[in-house]
Specification:
This protein is mainly β. Strands 3-4-5-6 form a 4-stranded antiparallel sheet, with no helix packed on it.
Length: 91
């Protein structure tokens, strides 16, 4: 699999580390119960189709970024920097 790093350009997948699902919102510490924290820490989406993930270019620029990847084919549909909104994709 080739991943198009926003800073370095296309590189082979072994240079990267997947950091899991993107856009997971941490619950407020002082106003959350144990169930909310358990959901935040342990439960993630596992879609059949496009999934937004965080990736780290570990053996390159060491920058984090987001990838929209199709879990059925591993085709990368979009790459975007942290803090940017996910692009609109035709599903």
């Amino acid at each position: 699999m080739r991943i198009d790093c926003p800073w370095c350009g296309p590189r082979d997948e072994p240079e990267f580390v997947c950091g899991g699902e993107s856009h997971v919102t941490r619950p407020p510490f002082d106003r959350s119960d144990d169930r909310a924290w358990a959901d935040y820490l342990y439960f993630r989406k596992n879609p059949k189709g496009v999934h937004h993930e965080r990736w780290l270019h570990l053996h390159g620029c060491r920058q984090w970024f987001n990838v929209a990847r199709d879990t059925r084919t591993h085709a990368i549909r979009a790459v975007y920097r942290m803090g940017e909104r996910p692009p609109e994709l035709d599903l």
